[in-house]
Amino acid sequence: MLELLQSYPGRPTSGLQFLALPQEILLLYPSADSIVVLNAHSLVFLRALAFWEAFPGMRHSYMSVQCLSIDAGMKLVVASMGARVAAWILSSSGSGSNKAQSSWRLHSSLALPEDQEITALDCKSGLLALGTRSTLSVYTLILENDLPTWSRKWACNAKQLARVRFSPSLMYIATTSSCDKVVRLHSTTSGRQTQTIPHPRPVIDINWRRPCLQIYPHIHTHMDDPIMYTTTSDGTLRIFLPVIDVPQRVQLHGALDAASSLPYSDNPVEDYPVGKDCAKSSSVFPLARDVVLEVLRGIGEAEDTTSGRRVREIVEEGWDLFLRVLADGSLVIQAVTNIDRRPPTLLRQFVLHQSISGLLPSPPPSHLYILSPLSNCSRPGTLTLITSPPLASYVLAPIPFLDSRADGLALLARASDQIDPETDSERLREVSQFVRTPEGDGVAALHTDRSVSTWHVRWSGRGLARRGRWDPTDAESVDRVVVLEGGVCFVTYTLSNGHLTLHGATATTIAVPSLVALFSLPSSVPSSTLRFPPSLILVGVTEAHTVLLISVSLMPTPSMSIRSETSLPLSCPLTFILPVDPMSWGGSPTSVPSSDAHDVLLSISEDGELAFWVPEDFCDRLPDPQANDRKTVSGIIRNGGWRCTGRVRTGRKGLRRAACSSAKKSVLVAQDTNGEELTIWDSKTSEFSSGLEYREVFSSSDPITDLDWTTTPDAQSVLAIGFAHRVELLSQQRMSYFDETAGWGRCWSIDIGRMLPHPIGDSIWLARGSLLIGAGHVMLLFGQAARATKDIQHEESLFEHVARYNGPLDNYHPQMILQCLLWEKVGLVKKIIINLAKHVESKEGDISWENIPAEEFYQKDEMSRSVHSTRKPQHSMLFSVPEAADESRGDQFSRTLVQRLLEHLEVRPLPHLTPNEHASLLVLIEATLEIEEQRRALDANGLRYLISMRTFYITNHRLSAPNTPASARTGAISRRIKPRKRLRYRDIAWAFHSESQELLLSTSIAACGGKMTWPDARALGVFLWMRSAETMKAHLEIIARNQYMAGDHRDPTACSLFYFALGKVKLVHGLWRQAAWHKEQAQMLKFLSNDFLQPRWRTAALKNAFALLSKRRFEYAAAFFLLGGSLKDAVNVCIKNLDDFQLAIALARIVEQGDEGPILREILNSTVLPLAFKDGNRWLASWAFWLLHRRDLAVRILVTPLLDIAAVLDVTITDIGNPHYDDPSLALLFSQLRSRTLQTAKGMSEISGRTEFNFVLQIARVFCRMGCQVLALDLVRTWEFQRPSRSSDTKLTTHPPSPVATRFAFEPALRRRSSILIDMDPSTAPPTRSASPISQLANSMQPSIQESVQLSIPDERPKPDQDMGARKADFGSLMKSAKQDAQVPEFDMSAFF
Question: Where is the composition biased (Basic and acidic residues) (predicted)?
């Protein structure tokens, strides 16, 4: 996803320290107030240890860490700042499991007097040597009350110590001073100075030679002898060995100077071709003897070449190797032999190898280290070379290097330099703010000391290049900064004096009013059309919320001028004026206003209203850079205004932060009672969408500190939310038809709390999806993962992830297949399945899928079926012979093909499908086969219900399966997805409006295993969608029998409620005769033997019902209420105690023998409708209105706002929830019901054309949010805006009576239907909304017949009220025509001839 590409912690200015772990080697060095921890081989940033963790009072002291030492044995890191010492320890769990980022903890601390500034330190085996400007002291580590503390052992006078080094035996301490050229040796036990060793040049380094006991175990007698190397500023290394008679003293035994490294000449310094300067500017370094010999021993045993024999000689004789780097970048390896001999009188030194020039950069590094390879190294037998500065790591292969081969030394990694070589690391300050160019290819960092550094984003987006730095004077202070031209120049604003300064080749300053915001816009004219770079536009917002437009010209002479100062035409007070992120702009934001002009500003009022603005007539032309008239160049050309392009009312007040993306997605952060509320709003609003897409409340303990947007190549927005120690990325998520997913979700999280203790100062998106984070003085650049190769597979990038979770879907995606099935594109789905079968059988790896052309989605289903049909139907006289499927054809949709495809997908799921999506795909493929086999008997709505039911059962079955690795491989659904208890009311509505309910009922029974119980019936909504009273009675009896037979015991109480509803009391009495095991058998047999038609026994049944209620036997209590003849009490128990309104409706429809009973109507009015409005469930409300014979409202509820519907109801609706216009099937049901009956036509007449237009656009947007853009296009292409035809005041023309003549003057769309249901009295039907005023223009319009209305409504369309009046007038004409033809004509045989 996003990986750490580069880190900018500052370059090391002193020596490096290393800590070897089992799985990696850590590199540490001080930088500013922290210790930087890197991987020594890859130089990847791991962590920074802040000194103020031990001393919080030094958090903003602007001091730097001076000294650093590592105790490898105790894994202790000791650092000093001023007169204080802090120590960190790496826990054993961290070192063993390679968790160097999170396993560091503070170990101990030590504070000296303030005047004792520590200048040198060393720590070994629990001993700490500290050197100050006047003393040398040694401390020992002790445990006091289980707390590690440092206890001073001794102290002596010393002057300006620069280096302190313990010997390997810990018997001696070597020191150097910055005020002389002497090396002093002290006794570790007493502190007594044992020896002084003067040098001709300043000493720049001291190294003690470590014994190699593992390689040479026989050399143990001299392991405590002090052997010391010193290096002076002239590049000379001196070798000091112990004196034989006085072993505590050392003497000079050899020196390696620059001249000794240039062989083959009597006067090498003068005659060597490289020259004297090259030799004198060289650097020499001792190579770690134990590391080198260990690696060479393994190589020499395997190599039998000349170089291999030389390597074996080095190992066998134990040579000491030294590496000298010359100014031309060449390397010289020198060897010294016989150092371990006693007496060491036979020392011999010579040049072992000299490389070609240019292997290392020039000048030579100040520090060089050799490291052992790791056990998991990809190139065994190699060494790692670390140089500084510049900090870089190299792979050194000894045999190829000695053979002078090109692969002998290869660059492994190079660190990013955050500061210039001449800039002191002490000047590093914490980052407080980032500002980028509009295109994101340049960024400026504003630091806490008000200095500015500018950077350019490299072309690959995987690194930054330093462009410049500006340090303010004592009298200057930078409050705002804008970076221009990819970081080449920048503009600063100083609030104290109101100066705006352009920093480039020459500084230019103008005075401006007090600004609260300053940002830049992209170039307004392509640079290819000008001889000079175009003028850049800065936008400044003043304290009075006026907008300044400032022109910046860089060539030929840098200049700035104020073009205009305007105010936004707003009457309400403003909170923010922010820029609309221009990251994805491809055109001109400031050109002549057009429909595709980019919004430039976002204003936010105090009451939370968002307004988007574009400059109107900003400029008629650009100033000519060559004009002689300076006023023409720098003067204000035209005072342009601002045009508002849209408004969004959010209702949020007290906003703390806000930001707007290129796609006009606005994020707001406001204080909430529970914390900080973050909301994301879309700029497109209507009566169907408030614009709110996402809401989340964050804890106030971790407040939001930053918001920033970026845009993907396919114009999707990604939001970065900054907190103190992490950045969370939110992207838009595809809307799912299977699960309820939020509109936005976290796609990635970057937690730097394990890397940096500093809080995040700022984070910002850069070009090509790079995210720059500044914490403390460290900058971290995160970016897209490297491209995958044939051998290495990398995870997908951020942009790929966002496109996969929110972009257009492939045809084979289950969501696309499901929508095609719901919208009657079965033939197209069959073609998709056939293509999928071909691809999975022909491809062993990933599928190279090609989507079906969009044109085929626009075809009718009959046309799609004809594409797959290869044989014409056979006819025998008047009767058609059913066409048999050709199973032999492999490219035909058949059961064989589907079974083969399912078997293949079970073994090898498709890539990029979640387990839930994969399971849904298998279900839909199988359901498509069942649809094809049963589509002659099922209508379209029945097919929709069948699809939903099959998906429901198979999904729940997979969720109940054991979650094993095998099940995961075959598409088991993630446990995070909870099983559904029932079908959605949307699916139940399809079955309710189906004309093949008998087949649906048999299919539902089969899905339940042939024995449907009440939980199964409730899950499928059977008694909500069945319309036949006789069928309901028969099916309820079946359910009662199955309830009784369920389980091992035959309990009559389980079925009594259903049998009592059917009036079969005697049957229940018979069941009790067989329940001898039941303790209530005798009582029930006696009680049920009575006649419950008599009031006495009905009263007794009601008393028993109340007694059962007190015992919380609710279902049995409802049964006794039915036995006592109180249906109302029974349904109340079902609703209030059992929370099962479906059971209440089933009982009411059975007992009242239809849908006209008062109890059923009361349930619908008092329970179902309030529940539907509370949940915003339009499907349930439409079903309830249909049963209540308010079918006009059943249509209107699908489109009209819930508040408007609630206003015309007889019942009081107080709780109205989310309107939920995110279901495209609403349009499908609306298109079916709007012309089915006279009532629905009446309801349709009360929906304005503008409302229907916005509704279709909303459904199209929902399709796009679901990834079905092609279906959205098909919807807007084929939608017909049906309206009742307008009739004149003249008398209607009567037609001769005919058996086939229609009675009503319907609109053309209605006349295309074969029939329309007369379900209302035309003379008494009440209106469902108040009448709208009808304009004279609408009354004077002539009758017109309109088949369909294009989506691009012309400007001369009537206003909503006028359109509503026309619709109501037309419906009145429709009612008159229906009332006029009230008598059925007699049958006339002559009408046929």
Answer: 1354-1367
